[in-house]
Design a protein that fits this description.
single chain; mainly alpha; extended
């Protein structure tokens, strides 16, 4: 098959990139030893910031996104704890217990709502 004419794609228009939404300070502090979890939370919040408008407020969507991710983190920590218990490795079991304790403590939604920077970011979005 012979292509008679190639269509040129115009160069992409570069727009200023919107900054990543801030995480609530207490949440970031509690996850300081879990940088991959922080990144996953920020990506979830970024998705909320880019989502088309809906009947729900952005802050409510952001809180639900955080609750969903934190619930996943807790489930992952509990799975790791079960695996560590079955393996018999005391060091792995201790790390898994600590991770579960940290993830369980993240579930307090009130600490997120009280963060003025976090709430302000999502209230400014239309």
């Amino acid at each position: 098959m012979v292509i008679k004419r190639l269509r040129r794609v115009p160069p992409a228009v570069t727009r200023p990139r919107r900054p990543l939404p801030p995480l609530p300070a207490q949440l970031r502090e509690q996850l300081q030893n879990y940088p991959d979890h922080v990144e996953r939370l920020q990506l979830a919040l970024h998705g909320v910031a880019l989502a088309p408008p809906s009947r729900l407020s952005r802050i409510e969507m952001a809180l639900w996104a955080l609750e969903d991710r934190v619930g996943r983190f807790l489930a992952e920590a509990q799975q790791e704890l079960d695996a560590a218990r079955c393996s018999g490795d005391a060091e792995r079991f201790a790390r898994a217990q600590e991770a579960e304790r940290v993830m369980f403590g993240l579930r307090l939604r009130q600490q997120w709502v009280k963060d003025e920077v976090f709430v302000g970011f999502f209230k400014e979005l239309k």
